[in-house]
Write a structure and sequence with these properties.
195 residues, alpha+beta, binds zinc ion, signal, Metallo beta-lactamase family protein
């Protein structure tokens, strides 16, 4: 610390002067003119005061240095704590982002899986309903509980709908297939032979 060194240096010089003056006063008192002696005594007293003042200043500066050091330590401690807190926050944010990405990936996989299952179920249901309709063409009575989407046969000219395309004298190559609802809404009635 420069101030401290400077003060110490000043103090040393002052002490040397005091010592020198002390010797001078002691040695020269006998054969020294009174005025010079008095002058030396005043100088010595002034230097004594100066030493006291410098000591005081040194003490003050010491406490200031300690204070500044404490402040510096505190600032460093805060900066370190802040850096640690930031690092922790960043690590936490990173972990959260990773967890979120993983959760989204899993959610997407689950959604894809459900969509696949749904599509398979739908395809299976469609197959089943097709099977139901074609089994109905074997001549069983399905009118009472015909499922939605049941298909029936219409001949080229007749006014009945049939459960098969070769009922009676109808020509299978000219028969067309429509839904039961459609046939009924167009005024066709169930064939008494096959229904
Ligand atoms: Zn018929």
């Amino acid at each position: 610390m420069n101030i401290k060194n400077l003060i110490l240096k000043n103090k040393r010089i002052a002490i040397c002067l005091v010592v020198a003056l002390g010797f001078g006063i002691a040695g020269g008192a006998s054969n020294m003119p009174q005025a010079d002696y008095n002058n030396l005594v005043v100088q010595k007293e002034q230097l004594d005061d100066k030493i006291i003042a410098l000591d005081k200043q040194l003490e003050e500066n010491k406490s200031k240095v300690d204070e500044l050091q404490a402040k510096k330590d505190e600032a460093e401690r805060i900066a370190k704590a802040e850096a640690e807190r930031k690092a922790k926050e960043e690590a936490k944010a990173k972990a959260e982002a990773e967890a979120k990405a993983e959760a989204e990936r899993l959610a997407k996989e689950e959604a894809d899986r459900l969509a696949r299952e749904e599509a398979e179920r739908f395809a299976q249901a469609e197959q089943n309903s097709n099977y139901y309709v074609s089994s109905g063409s074997n001549g069983g009575s399905v009118q009472e509980e015909a499922p939605i989407g049941t298909m029936v046969w219409l001949s080229a000219t007749g006014e009945k709908y049939h459960s098969r395309n070769n009922c009676g004298r109808m020509n299978p190559s000219k028969a067309r297939q429509v839904t039961l609802e459609s046939a009924r809404s167009q005024g066709f009635e169930a064939c008494s032979k096959c229904y």
